[in-house]
Amino acid sequence: MLSSDIDTMSKIMKGKIYLIPVPLGENVNHTIPTYVIEILHKLDYFIAERAKTARRFIKTTTPERPISVLNMVEINKFTDEADLPSFIQPALDGHDIGVISEAGCPGVADPGAAIVQLAHKNDLEVIPLVGPSSILMALMASGMNGQNFAFNGYLSPKKNELAAELKQLEAHSKRLKQTQIFMETPYRNNAILETALKALSNGTNFGFAVDITLPSQEIKVKKISEWKKTGFPDLHKRLAIFLLY
Predict the structure, then answer these.
(1) What is the CA radius of gyration of the chain?
(2) Residue 226: what are its φ and ψ, rounded to 5°?
(3) Cβ neighbour number for residue 26 with a 10 Å cutoff
(4) Dihedral of the CA atoms 133, 135, 138, 140 (nearest 10)?
(5) How many C-alpha atoms does 155 have within 13 Å on its Cβ side?
(6) How far apart are CA 194 and CA 219, in angstroms?
(7) Is the distance from CB of 165 to CB of 51 less than 8 angstroms?
(8) Is the CA virtual torsion 37, 41, 45, 50 positive or negative?
(9) Is the pLDDT of residue 5 over 80?
(10) 3-state SS of the chain?
(11) pLDDT confidence band for 12 (50 / 70 / 90)
C-alpha cells in the first residue's frame, strides 16, 4: 500500500470539525439553513462558547434525542490552553464535533478560532457551514467599500484612547480606501457615538448596524456632518456593529 493511501485512510478515520452558526437573536431559526440543522442533529460532541446558550439553541431545532445525552465542553477567555487538545480528542477518535459560537459564526471574533487552528495542526477536516455573520451583513448593508475592509474587534473603553483609535482608523481608511469595522460592548455603544462625533472629520461616512436579522433591526449610514445635524438614536444595550469609511 502506498504511503499516500495510508494517509488518506488515516484522514478518513478521523472525525470532522463542523463550524455551526447560530442565530443572532432569539427565535430566528429562519436564518439557519435546513442542511445545517440536519448536520447538527447527527452530532454527539460539541465545543461551545457557552454551553447553556448552545443547548438552548439546539433545543429550538427540535432534535429527536434529548439534550442531556450530548457531550459539550466550553471554550472562552477562561479556558486553559493546555485543555484544548482534549477538546478535539473525540475527532481524533473518529467522532465529528460541532463548534458553536454564542451568536453568529464560530471562529470569527470568537474563541472557536483556537479549535480551528488546532484542528489544522492535527490534520482534521474543518467544514464551515452557512449562517448569519453580523460583521459581513453589516458591511453588505453599509454601501462602503466591500473590496477592501478590516475588522478591528473592540476599541479602547477609555475616551481619550478611543478618540485616538477612531482617528487612526479614519486615517487608515483614507490612505488605504479601506472600510473599517469594529464592535463594542452594548452598554458602551452611546459612548462610541458621542466620541465619533467629536473625533471624526465631517466628510467621513459613519454607520451602525444593530439587532441584525431581528424585528428591531436598524442600519444607518451618514456622513459625520449629517449625524451632527440629526443626532444618533439611543443604542444603549443593543447589539451593534460600527463602520466608517
Answers:
(1) 21
(2) -75, -40
(3) 10
(4) -80
(5) 29
(6) 18
(7) no
(8) positive
(9) no
(10) CCHHHHHHHHHHHCCCEEEECECCCCCCHHHCCHHHHHHHCCCCEEEECCHHHHHHHHHHCCCCCCHHHCEEEECCCCCCHHHHHHHHHHHHCCCCEEEECCCECCCCCCCCHHHHHHHHHCCCCEEECCCCCHHHHHHHHHCCCCCCEEEEEECCCCHHHHHHHHHHHHHHHHHHCCEEEEECCHHHHHHHHHHHHHHCCCCCEEEEEECCCCCCCEEEEEEHHHHHHHCCCCCCCCCEEEEEC
(11) low
Cell digits of residue 228: 451632527
Contacts of 38 (CB under 8 A, 6+ apart): none
pLDDT of 25 above 90: no
Q: Which three cell numbers, joined as nine digits, stand for 235?
A: 443604542
Is 157 in contact with 124 (CB distance < 8 Å)?
no
Cα-Cα-Cα-Cα dihedral of 59, 34, 120, 118, to 10°?
-10
C-alpha cell at 81: 490552553
The residue assigned the cell 463602520 is 243
| Rounded Cα distance, 100 and 223, in Å | 37
Across all residues in the chain, what is the average pLDDT? 93
Return d(Cα 162, Cα 196) in angstroms, integer: 9
Residues 6+ apart with CB under 8 A from 189: 208, 210, 235, 236, 237, 238, 240
pTM of the predicted model, to two decimals? 0.87
- 106 contacts 20 by C-beta, under 8 angstroms: yes
Domains of the chain: 3-128 (3.40.1010.10), 134-244 (3.30.950.10)
